[in-house]
Amino acid sequence: MAKPRILLAEDDQNLGSLLKEYLEMKGYFADLYPDGEKAYKGFTKEHYDLLLLDVMMPVMDGFTLASEVRQINKEIPIIFLTAKALKEDVLEGFAIGADDYITKPFSMEELLFRIEAILRRTRAGKDSETHLFQLGNYNFDSQKQTLTIEKDSQKLTTKESELLKLLCSNKNKVLERNFALRTIWFDDNYFNARSMDVYITKLRKYLKEDPSVEIINVHGKGFKIIC
To answer: Could you confirm whether domain 5-126 is CATH 3.40.50.2300?
Structure first.
C-alpha cells in the first residue's frame, strides 16, 4: 500500500519542520507549506490523503484555505491545528467541513492517533459492502459520498456522509447521540456534540426536496431518520 501523503500548512517554521520530520519518520509523506496561499497552490498540483492546517497563518488563514479546498474536494479529511480552543472557532471549523481539530500545545502521539483513526475510518467507508441507500426519492451512495434526487446530485463531505450512513443504517430507529459521537468524532464532549448538531442541520437541508424524508430529534436520546 502506498504511503499516505499529508499536506501540512504551518507558518511556525520550527513546529512545521518538527511535524514534517515526525510524520515522515512514522511512514507518511508530508509536504510543508508556510502559508495558506502556497498550501492551496500545492493542493491543486498534488494528490493528498489528509490536510493538517494551522488556523492562524499569513496571506490565507486555515479556515479560508479549508473553504477553498471544499469548493473542489468535499471528501479529503481536514484536521485543524489551533492555538485556542474557543467555542466559536471550533464550531466554525466544523461548519466548514473539518474532520477534527487539535489544540496547541499537543503531543505528537495524540496527533498521530487522530490522523491514523481518520484514515482508517475513511478507508473502511470506501471498502464497506453496504453503501447504497434509498431514502424516499433520494439515492445515497456513501462510497461516492453523493446524495441524488432526480437529476440533482449533492456531494457530501466525509463527516456528512458518515453521519447520514449511520442514520440510514438505523432507518426508522433511534440513532443514539453518544453512539454517533463516539463512532464519528471519537468523543462525546460539548464541542463535538455542537458540531454534530451543525451536520444534522446540513443534512436536513439536503433532504428538504422530499417531504416524506425527515430527520427528527428524539428527546434525550438522539436522532431518527424516517421515510
So the answer is: yes
